[in-house]
Amino acid sequence: MELPGQMMYAPMLLSSILEQAARHSAEVEIVSRRVEGDVHRYTYRDCHTRSKQLAQALDARGIGAGDRIGTLAWNGYRHMELYFGVSGIGAVCHTINPRLFPEQIVYIINHSRDRFVFFDASFASLVEQIAALCPHVEKWVMLCDEAALPNAFAVPLESYETLIAGHDGHFTWPSFDERQAALLCYTSGTTGDPKGVLYSHRSITLMCYGSALPDTLALSATETIAPVVPMFHVNAWGLPFSATLVGAKLVLPGAKLDGESLCSLFEQEGVTMSAGVPTVWLGFVDYMRRTGKTSTTFRRAVVGGAACPPHLAAAMAEVGVKAVHAWGMTELSPLGTVCSGSRGYAGKSAEEQAAIEAKQGRAVPGIDLKIVGSDGAELPWDGQSAGDLMARGHWVADRYFGAEHSALDDGWFPTGDVATIDPDGYMHITDRSKDVIKSGGEWISSIELENIAMSHPEIEKAACIACAHPKWDERPLIVAVRREGSSVSARDVLDFYAGKVAKWCVPDDIVFVDDLPLTATGKVQKLTLRQRFGGYFLA
Ligand code: ADP
C-alpha cells in the first residue's frame, strides 16, 4: 500500500526565492549600471519590496494568473523586479530579445499576446516603430521615472516609477501550483518562426538548485556575480534567480558589454564570477591585453551559447580568469552541462586536463543525456562515436508554447546538436546537425576546423561552413577575419592545419571578409554565410 511521506509541502515558487533572500541576505547588494549612465545600488530587501509594489500595481490593473507581460530590457534592477513581481502573482514574464528584427519582435509579441510591455528608454524608437502592429498590447510602460518620459510618443505611455509608486509593498505572495508558467522565452528562430519555451516555477527553481552545486557553477553567498549574458537570453542562464537563491551580491551591467565597460565595472564592484557568450569574452580579453591589465577579483567566467575556442580559454587564463565551458539551449532553461572536475580529472596530465576543458562538460544533476545514431539506437560513451544528442530532465521543455504536440521523441528532447560522450561522462559538441560537413559519406566537425583557424595568431575570427561540392557532396570552407594590420594568405592558414587534423578534413579554401554576421544572441550566423558562399566550390 502507498505510504505518503509526512513532510511539509510548499510549492516551489520563484517568489519564495526572493523572500528567502530578503530575510536571510537582506543587506546584500544588487548593483546595476543603468541605461541612464549612472550606477544604482540597493539590497535584496529593497528588491523584494519593490517587486511586491509591482505585483500590487499589476493586480490593481487586472493582470492575473497566466497573463503575459513582455519586457524589452537590459540587465538591471527593474528587470529583476519584473522577473519576480510578474511571476509572483502567477502571470508570465516574457523576455523579448531586442536584437531580433522588428518583424520577429512583432511576431513574438502577437504570438504570446502580451498585455503590457515594459521597455528600457534605449528601446523607445523600436517601440514607436512596432506599437501599431501589436494590437493586443494594452499598455506600454517605460522603465524610468515620470520626468524621463518623452514629451511626444506614438502611443500613450506610462512610467514604471509612477506605476508602482501608489503601492506600499505590503503584499503576501499568492500560493499556487509550482507547475504554473513563470517566464517565457522564444528561440531566436534562425530557421523558421521563433518558438516559445514556457518555463514553470518548478523547472526554474530546480535548475537553480542544480546550477548552484559545486561541480556546476559553484555559486555561493561569498561571490559577486555579474551575469553578462542578457536577461532576455534564456533568463540570463538563470543567474538572477540562482544568485538570489544563494544570496550572492549581484552586478547587472546594463547595455554596455564592451571590454572596457565590463573591466571597469568588475574592478569597481569586486566581481568574482560572470557568464557570457564567447564573443563577449573575446572583446574582454582583447581589451585587457591591449591595456596590459589583469583582473584583481574576477576569477571565473562561464562561457557558453557557442563553443569556447581553446585559444580563448588560454587568453583568459593569461589575464587571470578561468574559463568554465558550459552548454545549453533555450529549451533546457538553458543549463545542460558544465565542464568541471570529476573523480578521474585530478589524476590527469595538464595536457589531458586542457583537452577535457575544451569539452562542454558533464550533465548537471537533474539532466540526463544520450547520443543516438541515425537508426535511433543509443551509441557508446567512448569519446569517439558521434551522434544526435538527446536530453531529458526537470528543466527540459516538453512542447513549444501554443504547439499542439510534444516536441519529444520517446521521452527525450532532440537537441539538434551532434556530440560525443566519453567514459567519464564529458560531452563534446562536434557540431549542430545542420552545420556538420558531410564529405563523401564522412562527417567533418565545423567547430574543430574553425577552432584551429582561430588559434592562428593572425586570425581574429573564423567560421567553417559546408559548401556544395561536385565530387564530395560537401567540403569545408573557412570564412575568416584577419587581425588588424595582417595580410596573412589563405595558403599560410591552410598550411597551419598540417598535423592538426586528418588530411581529408583540411578545409579546401579560406576566404577573408571584413566581419562575420552575428545572430541576435551573438553567435555567428552560418545560414547567412552559407547563402553567400554555399556555391563557392561549384563556381
Ligand atoms: P538558438 O538555438 O536560437 O541559437 P540557443 O541559445 O537556445 O538559441 O542555442 C542553443 C544552441 O547553441 C545549442 O543547441 C548549441 O548548438 C549551441 N551551444 C550552446 N552552448 C554551446 C557550447 N558550449 N558549445 C557549442 N555549442 C553550444
Describe the model:
By secondary structure, the protein is α/β, with parallel strands linked by helices. It folds into 3 domains: 19-255, ANL, N-terminal domain (Rossmann fold), CATH 3.40.50; 334-432, Luciferase, domain 3 (Roll); 437-533, ANL, C-terminal domain (GMP Synthetase, Chain A, domain 3, 2-Layer Sandwich), CATH 3.30.300. It contains 16 helices and 25 strands. A 9-stranded mixed sheet has the order 2-1-11-10-12-13-14-15-16, with helices on both faces. It has a 7-stranded mixed sheet with strand order 7-6-5-3-4-8-9, sandwiched between helices. It has a 4-stranded antiparallel sheet with strand order 17-18-19-20. α7 packs across α9. The mean pLDDT is 95. Adenosine-5'-diphosphate (ADP) binds at residues 187-188, 190, 234, 304-307, 325-330, 360, 415-417, 429, 432, 521, 523. GO terms for molecular function: ligase activity. This is Long-chain-fatty-acid--CoA ligase. Residues 448-523 form the AMP-binding enzyme C-terminal domain.
How are the secondary structure elements laid out?
Blueprint: H1 14-24, E1 29-33, E2 39-43, H2 44-60, E3 68-72, H3 77-88, E4 92-95, H4 102-112, E5 116-119, H5 124-130, E6 139-142, E7 157-159, H6 160-165, E8 181-186, E9 196-200, H7 201-212, E10 224-227, H8 234-237, H9 239-246, E11 249-252, H10 259-269, E12 273-276, H11 278-291, E13 300-303, H12 310-318, E14 322-328, E15 335-338, H13 350-357, E16 362-363, E17 367-372, E18 387-393, E19 413-421, E20 427-432, E21 437-439, E22 442-444, H14 446-454, E23 459-469, E24 473-482, H15 490-495, E25 509-512, H16 526-533
Parallel strand pairs: 1-11, 3-4, 3-5, 4-8, 5-6, 6-7, 10-11, 10-12, 12-13, 13-14, 24-25
Antiparallel strand pairs: 1-2, 8-9, 14-15, 15-16, 17-18, 18-19, 19-20, 21-22, 23-24
Helix pairs in contact: 1-2, 1-9, 2-3, 7-9, 10-11
The chain binds adenosine-5'-diphosphate.
